[in-house]
Amino acid sequence: METLGLLMEGFAGALTPMNLLWVVLGCLLGTAVGVMPGLGSSMAVALLLPMTFALEPTAAFILFAGVYFGGLFGDSTMAILMNTPGQASAIASTFEGHRMAQDGRAAQALATAAIGAFIGGIIASVCVVFLAPALAEFSTSFGPAEYFALALFAFVATSSVVADSVLRGLASLVLGLGIAVVGIDGVTGTERFTMGSSQLFDGIPLVTVTVAVLALGEVFHVASRVRRERRDLRIRRTGRPWLSGAEFREAAPAWLRGTAIGLPFGIVPVGGSEVPTFLAYSAERRLDRRRRVPMFGKGAIRGLAAPEAAGNATTGMAMGALLTLGLPVSATAAIMLAAFRQYGLQPGPLLFDRSPDLVWALLASFFIAMVVLLAINLPFAQLWAKLLLIPQHYLYAGITLFCGLGIYATTGAVFDLLMLLALGVLGFLMRRYGYPLAPLMIGMVLGPLAETSLRDALLSSVGDPAILVSSPITWVIYGILAVVLAFSVRAAVVSRTRRDV
Question: Could you give the angle at the alpha carbon of 273 between the alpha carbons of 19 and 281, nearest 5°?
Fold first, then answer.
């Protein structure tokens, strides 16, 4: 009851006219930024930091939270409509979401994404409010060995499930890990794969890789096939911007399963919502294979519903981890942690005692933001779908421009623009020859975490590798990994047997 009372006080603070204005403004800004490939919620929050010093802390963090959640909605919009996700967390939505759009169901796909994100976000917000102490205790039980096991699980599971060819999936993963280790090693000071270039001493930024491989690579891919596949760039519209009863019943179980998959990943730092979205997609794909008439590859609504719910569930829980532990589990959360410190605040258990007004108003704003985002996106799904009426040469030229502007605004270095171009060509070649992009992004995102965790674990055990399997949590993670690999091998054998027959 005490928690409910504090939450009601938070709603009283969040529903003041000015704070409500910041919620709406953050949601609008986050959605608009997410729609534009090359930009994302992390970049938007970073650019807003110097402009929010005049605001009091509660207003500033309500604005940041709206941008954070809104960015996921916007990323999904472009992933569905144009197959150009703004961030890696929206990649899984492209697989079936874009096929739905190509099949004339763009508005229904956007409605599916909006409702899924709403359900995932609301359930995550409830969990954050009522389970914060338990979440804090669970997260503190993870040490270097557990983080390494979790990263290894993400590497192997993604490479073997998302890719049709395991070898191509592993090759893409190795490429992502190779990009992640470029720069100066923070422990030994050794240069790694810099080729003597001082511009690479700090490594290759994740945002540059994400924008180049996902957005610019798609632009090059479309440009190379524009004459042969021109019809795919003009998506038909059905004019029905809502889900039918049958579609809602089809998507509902996937929304709940995606939410259940996404919630735990908001507690531990595994790179944000990229991993749970792919796991949610792969889970639905496996269930679809058991159907009499499999729908994946034809615009399966469950293949879009589950990743969207998982992504927002992870984001909501990530905000809980940030507030209760001061633990950033994504790039945007890390920037928000820096913002807390600039205001002289330290997230963690003491924040609830020292600044309860800020904490509970921010938690209440999560619920408000979900409702606002649903109101912004669901009724205007058909309006978003009209983006497809823009001539493709203008649209993709604009995407390219935003890619360049987004990267230059982040670093202000011409070298990063050249690196953007080179990585964009890499993304195009991977698409051209059928190499999956997801393992590359997972390797890039989790590579540093895996390396640091492995090093810390071995240092703490004086080089004894048994430390990597010394806790029950690692046993559970490796056990689940073994099950996933067994199912992957079985599916590959069955598929090859059917082809031979």
Answer: 125
pLDDT digits (tens, 9 = 90+) for 312-367: 888 888 888 778 766 666 667 766 777 787 777 877 667 777 787 888 888 888 89
Instruction: Convert the pLDDT of each residue in 94-140 to its tens digit.
Output: 888 888 887 878 788 888 888 888 998 899 888 888 876 566 566 56
Q: What pairs with residue 183 in β-bridges? A: 192
Task: Find all residues with CB under 8 Å of 485, minimum gap 6, and list them.
Answer: 156, 160
- Provide CB contacts within 8 A for 332, sequence distance 6+: 40, 41, 42, 45, 68, 71, 272
For residues 380-409, give the mean pLDDT: 72
Strand partners, 184: 191
What's the domain range around 470? 2-500
- Cα separation, 454 vs 398, whole angstroms: 42
The Cα 312–Cα 69 span in angstroms is 7
Domain count, the chain: 1
Q: How far apart are CA 457 and CA 447, in angstroms?
A: 15
* Non-local CB neighbours of 291 within 8 Å, separated by 6+ positions: none
Inter-residue contact 313 to 259 (CB < 8 Å):
yes
Reported for 10-15, long-range contacts at CB under 8 A and 24+ positions apart, including other chains, are 10/357, 10/359, 10/360, 10/361, 10/362, 10/363, 10/364, 10/365, 11/364, 11/367, 11/368, 13/58, 13/357, 13/360, 13/361, 13/364, 14/62, 14/361, 14/362, 14/364, 14/365, 14/368, 15/364, 15/368
Are 311 and 277 within 8 A, CB to CB?
A: yes
CA dihedral 368, 371, 372, 375 (to 10 degrees): -170
The maximal CA–CA distance of the chain, rounded, in angstroms, is 70
Which amino acid makes up residue 122? I
Half-sphere exposure of 218 (CA within 13 A, CB side): 27
For residues 301 and 371, give the distance between their C-alpha atoms in angstroms, rounded to a whole number: 22
- Give the Cα separation of 498 and 463 in Å (integer): 47
pLDDT of residue 162: 54
Report the alpha-carbon angle 370-374-375, nearest 5. Answer: 115
Answer whether 228's CB lies under 8 Å from 107's CB.
Answer: no
Residue tagged 């709940």 (tokens): 256
| DSSP helix/strand/coil, 183 | strand
The pLDDT of 22-29, averaged and rounded, is: 88
Evaluate whether 44 touches 71 at the Cβ level (below 8 Å): yes
How far apart are alpha carbons 262 and 117 in whole angstroms?
11
In degrees, rounded to 5, the angle at the alpha carbon of residue 275 between the alpha carbons of residues 270 and 280 is: 140
- Per-residue pLDDT reduced to its tens digit, 240-272: 557 788 888 888 999 999 999 988 877 765 556
Residue 228: predicted pLDDT: 45
